[in-house]
Predict the structure.
Amino acid sequence: MSVKIADTAEKSENPVRVVFIGGLGRSGTTLLERLLGQLPGVVPLGEITHLWERDLVGDEMCACGATFSYCEFWQRIGKAAFGSWEDVDVERLAALKATVDRTRHIPALASKKLASDQHQLVTEYASYFEKIYRAAAADTGARVVVDSSKHASLAYCLRWAPGIDLRIMHVVRDSRGVAYSWTKQVRRPESPTGDQMTRYSPAKAAMLWNAQNAAFSLLARRGVPVRRVRYERIIQRPRHVIASLARFCELDLVESDLNFIGEGCADLGPSHSAAGNPMRFTVGRIPIRHDEAWADELPESTRRMVSTLTRPLLGRYGYLREDEEAELPREVAAGE
Ligand SMILES: [Zn+2]
């Protein structure tokens, strides 16, 4: 027996509207979450995919500066969603994640129907997330909950949850800039042991960039509302982009709602973003400017390799200059 997506998607009369920010890390997803999170009617939650292990088990720091177990917001959410955080079966959740929420499962999750046992596992897994989203929306009165978990495989799981009105903001950034960023050392300030953020070689980053971005394009073809947004465009015209994205999630804004975005900067208030990039801790005025260090600092041979490996999508997203189009080998485009 199998279950079609429409069988479940039509069941909920009162779905919670979730904006899922997707894309490969270091593409500007945290900046986008911070900007969206300033809008009235929006509650930004951070990368919920990491909440279970880093916050529930690791008791890392919330963006408000309190450790998770001392953050009043998250304690209210835990109580409303699960009765108590202690009632969340973290081991069960980890087992479910291993079974359904992996990039390798995307082809199965992308199908129009799932075998009933698989469907049961996916909806059970997604229900943990839905409970958090609902509790956060109820607690804050927000119309839109933002989860910046990024990973495409989670978005594919959430797609099967009957109670979630899922909308994807797919953030893309020039693969050469992304690859350069993954080579840099960044400390995780929320980690009590002073861990560094994960680093990838440029070749590995290029392959992940391909996989994640292709997965979100496929999700759009499966009927999930996906809005692609270029990081460089956010930097260039933040007010315009945020206003457009607000329409995408059906938020009614007035002009003054965007006053926190100035010329090349934005004024950010505090949040309870639970896990993610260290930028979530920044409160006050932040610069919004191009970070193009990669253009000077990425060695020519590396740049060329990353360009070649990511050529099909790099071209489709409009990142290749004419001279690069001409000089890069074409054969890697065959799989596009
Ligand atoms: Zn907090």
